[in-house]
Design brief:
single chain; 362 residues; 10 helices; 16 strands; globular; disordered N terminus
């Protein structure tokens, strides 16, 4: 399903008046450490692991953004377009009081919701941060980065936000700044600007944090390869959540990893776009070729594993490995941590038995 994403970051923005009945928050039926879940009547049922996952995601985003968690993020799960206080055709949006979405999880809007505690940043940089640290769900807007950097920065307005065509450029530039200069750029843009700040103020903050002149930054950025959002984004949960780490080697013997993907499993997330999934992580001890094999329970087909390096930018290692049938695939990996997303079609539970070999193991 092709979807469009949007964010309405100001209480006074067009179509976002405070008296909008779609802004009403329904009863909260689940609360975690930092997330309150409030579904509207008719919202679809979630897999068991979805709400704990979103709750943890709030904390991970807050840490990445340098934001203090001083209250819970309200997540309103809508049942249709009429239940959303968003621009027509979008799947979700964020306001100061919380996130509204037709799907769960929607990590892009969770990023906005958390950043909203500090008042948001100018539209181009706000959407850039959400594209880097949010989800990579299928969406028509998620194409190869393109278009002029300055045109994109200047295209955002308080009234309409950032036009969707500039999301790829915003995310790509945010990923470059984060990779080249570290997380302080994203964090300081949030602290020292707001949604009404002009491009001049945003550039001043970037220059102050990086210690480089704007012309120098633009010249350097022009040499960065273009890529789509799935490549440059940071798989935040798999890379920063300690509980998802799995051991795959014991001495010189490969250790099998067994994961159950089913909507009644406490680690399964979704459904979204017809899929349900779980994320695990592994540590790679050295550069080299690693062989992956993933077998499924009898009769299970139509699955894949996505391997993502815990890195930001277009040179991030990323590979997709079919699951099932005992077929193996060799992938070159650099030393470091990798997030592995194991995906199944919605409503088709299966047990996955995976083995990894390489670096003298197995």
């Amino acid at each position: 399903m092709l979807v469009r994403w949007g964010v309405c970051v100001l209480l006074g923005a067009t179509g976002c008046e405070a008296e909008d009945p779609a802004r009403e928050i329904p009863p909260i039926i689940w609360s975690g450490a930092q997330l309150d879940y409030a579904p509207r009547p008719g919202a679809y049922e979630l897999c068991e692991g979805t709400l704990p996952y979103m709750d943890r995601y709030v904390a991970l985003v807050a840490d990445a953004m340098g934001v203090e968690v001083d209250r819970s993020l309200v997540y309103v799960h809508a049942s249709g377009d009429g239940d959303l206080p968003c621009q027509e055709g979008v799947v979700g949006c964020a306001f100061f009081e919380g996130v509204y979405s037709k799907v769960a999880p929607q990590e892009h809007e969770i990023v906005h919701g958390v950043r909203g505690w500090s008042g948001f940043s100018p539209g181009f940089f706000e959407e850039g941060a959400a594209e880097v640290f949010g989800d990579d769900a299928r969406a028509a807007v998620r194409v190869m980065s393109n278009g002029s950097l300055m045109e994109g920065i200047e295209a955002a307005s308080v009234e309409t936000g950032l036009p969707l065509r500039w999301y790829p450029r915003a995310g790509h530039f945010a990923a470059h700044l984060h990779e080249r200069y570290g997380p302080e750029v994203t964090q300081e843009l949030l602290r020292r600007t707001d949604a009404r700040a002009g491009e001049g103020r945003a550039i001043e903050v970037i220059e102050a944090v990086t210690g480089a002149g704007w012309d120098e930054i633009v010249e350097e950025y022009a040499k960065v390869p273009e890529c789509a959002q799935a490549r440059y984004r940071y798989p935040l949960h798999g890379c920063e959540e300690p509980t998802v780490l799995r051991a795959w080697c014991d001495g010189d013997e490969s250790v099998g990893i067994i994961e159950r993907i089913a909507c009644d499993d406490p680690d399964t997330i979704g459904p979204r776009n017809g899929e349900m999934w779980t994320t695990i992580a592994v540590e790679v001890p050295e550069d080299g070729d690693y062989r992956f094999v993933a077998r499924l329970g009898e009769g299970a087909v139509g699955s894949e594993m996505t391997i993502e390096e815990c890195a930001v930018g277009c040179d991030k290692i990323m590979a997709k490995v079919p699951m099932g049938g005992g077929n193996s695939m060799e992938v070159f990996l650099r030393k470091g941590r990798y997030a592995l997303r194991l995906t199944r079609p919605e409503g088709e539970p299966a047990e996955v038995r995976m083995e990894i070999s390489g670096a003298g193991c197995g």
